[in-house]
Amino acid sequence: MRLGESHALAGAPGPAREALAEAVAVAEELGSPPLLELALRVARTHRLAFAGRNAPATGPESLTVREQEVLRLIAAGHTNRLIARDLGISEKTVSVHVSNVLRKLQVGSRTEAAGIAFREGLVADP
User: Fold this and answer.
1) pLDDT digits (tens, 9 = 90+) for 54-92
2) Distance of alpha carbon 96 from alpha carbon 93, whole angstroms
3) pLDDT value at position 37?
4) Angle between helix 80-87 and 65-75 (nearest 10)
5) Three-state SS annotation for 3-61
6) Under DSSP, is residue 5 helix (H, G, I), strand (E, B) or coil?
7) 110/97 Cα distance (integer angstroms)
8) The pLDDT of residue 74
9) CA-CA distance, 13 to 115, in Å (whole number)?
10) What's the pTM value of the predicted model, to 2 decimals?
11) Which pLDDT score is estimated for 105?
């Protein structure tokens, strides 16, 4: 996986794609969701697509564990300041997570994101 990232950083997308495709195959063979997610995240970061995996990372299933935590707190009505305090991270980092949640859920507001969270069962009804 690191080899693929190194190739991508060096501006060699072909070798990067090959190395990352091998990492994805190994992760799938081992049945390791964390390793698979990491390999796919590296590929997405460097805008490398794989056959059958070109769909953009959107929808509730695309949220990281941290983004799910942020969404849960958004649904509870927390401000960025409260979320930052609860999670022990900066408000700027919370802002990035909120932006990612909104983008991945394809919504324009925190209220819409909270609605999806409740509708999809990602958080318990209040």
Assistant:
1) 444 678 888 888 999 999 999 999 999 999 999 999 999
2) 5
3) 86
4) 130
5) HHHHHHHCCCHHHHHHHHHHHHHHHHHHCCHHHHHHHHHHHHHCCCCCCCCCCCCCCHH
6) helix
7) 12
8) 97
9) 39
10) 0.57
11) 92
